């Protein structure tokens, strides 16, 4: 991940307008307004809206955490549906990566969009059980 959306770029001792915050984080101003609607505190109701740097930092860190915790092991976050989805079991592929990790790719069972995530080797049994099928043909990738 790049420095995009990186809470560490925010200075806690200053305030940001929506535009400043969006430029700093490389996101659309609409996204910042969505954050405010989603609970990001603002200094007061006057225009321009001012966001306290410290609040923004905390908000983004929490958001990142929720995002990471949102998916069950066998779910994948679909960027189109904007929520965790079950992958279509037939589309699943597992590719072994270093350090006991496996790159899991598959298609969202709702919209067919491609999704990726990294899982631990240890979770593979659990994942295949939850999805009610044996690990698919890409198993050959696993027998390195
Ligand atoms: Zn989807």
From TrEMBL:
Q: Where are the bilayer-spanning segments?
A: none
> What residue stretches are annotated with the Helix-turn-helix domain?
16-63
Pfam families the record matches? HTH_17
Query: Which InterPro entries does the annotation name?
Result: DNA-bd_dom_put_sf, HTH_17, WH-like_DNA-bd_sf
Protein name listed in UniProt: Helix-turn-helix domain protein
Organism phylogeny: Bacteria, Pseudomonadati, Pseudomonadota, Gammaproteobacteria, Vibrionales
């Amino acid at each position: 991940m790049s420095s995009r959306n990186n809470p560490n770029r925010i200075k806690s001792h200053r305030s940001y307008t929506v535009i400043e915050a969006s430029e700093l984080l490389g996101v659309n101003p609409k996204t910042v307004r969505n954050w405010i609607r989603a609970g990001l505190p603002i200094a007061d109701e006057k225009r321009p809206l001012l966001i306290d740097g410290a609040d923004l930092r905390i908000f983004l860190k929490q958001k990142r955490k929720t995002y990471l915790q949102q998916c069950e092991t066998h779910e994948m976050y679909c960027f189109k549906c904007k929520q965790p989805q079950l992958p279509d079991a037939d589309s699943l592929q597992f590719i072994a990566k270093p350090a006991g990790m496996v790159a899991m790719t598959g298609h969202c069972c709702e919209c067919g969009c491609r999704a990726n995530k990294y899982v631990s080797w240890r979770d593979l049994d659990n994942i295949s059980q939850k999805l009610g099928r044996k690990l698919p043909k890409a198993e050959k990738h696993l027998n390195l």
